[in-house]
């Protein structure tokens, strides 16, 4: 078993972990839970996940009793729980200070523990001010009830807001996010959260690596094993939504790849999730000891995931190859260098590999400005090469910080502010007017070069003027606040 730091913290967690969702209380009693937990420990797992809502609290009771009966040292394991849905009362759910304090107190009582290592906000709470939640999480940490706190199924914007509050108040921010991540659900982990990894050191403990069992290959059209999750009454609707022809086609396409590697489809799917360097731990679930043994062997599959194998997997899901993804670069420009003014305000327009923002930097630091412009030229050339090959661009939409990159012809690369952009706004940037609302490729842009060029000329001038105004304001602010000017530029990549 390999162990990784949970984000930027010093807490070490096993690369694969075990979660009590669905199983404890719904399918397993204490005796069966003890056998499963011990099988996990024998494989080197030290991280176990739970939540107050799992089986209405019964999952926490079973896990706590099983760990107590097994006689484990508390310091040998990492236990997490999640707070949001605690009951039916108006104050028994959400992320108010009242529920966070009372909810965690209740979880600790059910677990029969003095503390949990990590406590998550199970969902965002629009009805509670984020400052109240951040303060409450810090309060339970100060009481010794938890060591770290994190989020689950939050957006990048919400996590950024939490960190802004924590920094302003000199408090502890969230160190981990728990999103769904598998071959069918990838947007947040691979696109939306990109700025969070380097900016805040966010780690990930991802759930549902097998897409609720779909990626085990055991399900077929009308074929649901009696002892499986989809056989439960509460999951029949999910089964109907998941077991559609297109999903099953993709799953069947992975089976030959797994067979050539000599591994199961489940092992291949878990290994694919664990191979993402931003994932600290993949939360697995199992109802049988044999499933745990099989899941743990997924770690041996990771070295076999060569770029060629990854490209074959991506081909089944119609995603760009690793080489193509590496060239779809998201570029952001920060107009101010001070910590207080970090934002993604600038819209940088590059024409023929010349970056106006780099020229602004060059006035104050020639070496930095030259290096920045050279890098910008390389990125522009890489994007143009992809354009020439006619590769369809599948960029992330509705994301917080990275901008949308719109390549409109062979010579122009435009970087647009992309904050909270929807499909209609992206179409306004990427597509000629007569093609909006239709599926388009980069090749189509090049073929309609004349109409695009006319629009580009207008867009380029307006973007450059706005960018220059922003740079002037930023420099003036820096001179007033610090007496120095040191603009910076950040680069984010798909990977």
UniProtKB/TrEMBL annotation:
Localization of this protein: Cytoplasm
Composition bias type Polar residues, residue spans: 370-384
One term of GO molecular function: voltage-gated potassium channel activity
Domain NADP-dependent oxidoreductase: 16-315
Start-end of Basic residues biased regions: 468-478
Gene Ontology CC annotation, any one: cytoplasm
Segments of skewed composition (Basic and acidic residues): 438-467
Keywords associated with the record: Cytoplasm, Ion channel, Ion transport, NADP, Oxidoreductase, Potassium, Potassium transport, Transport, Voltage-gated channel
Record has Chloroplast as a keyword: no
Annotated SUPFAM superfamilies: NAD(P)-linked oxidoreductase
InterPro entries: K_chnl_volt-dep_bsu_KCNAB, K_chnl_volt-dep_bsu_KCNAB-rel, NAD(P)_OxRdtase_dom_sf, NADP_OxRdtase_dom
Region (Disordered): 363-384, 437-481
Signal peptide extent: none
Main subcellular location of this protein, as a coarse class: cytoplasm
Subunit structure of this chain's protein: Forms heteromultimeric complexes with potassium channel alpha subunits.
PANTHER family from the UniProt entry: HYPERKINETIC, ISOFORM M
Protein name according to UniProt: Probable voltage-gated potassium channel subunit beta
Source organism of the structure: Panicum miliaceum
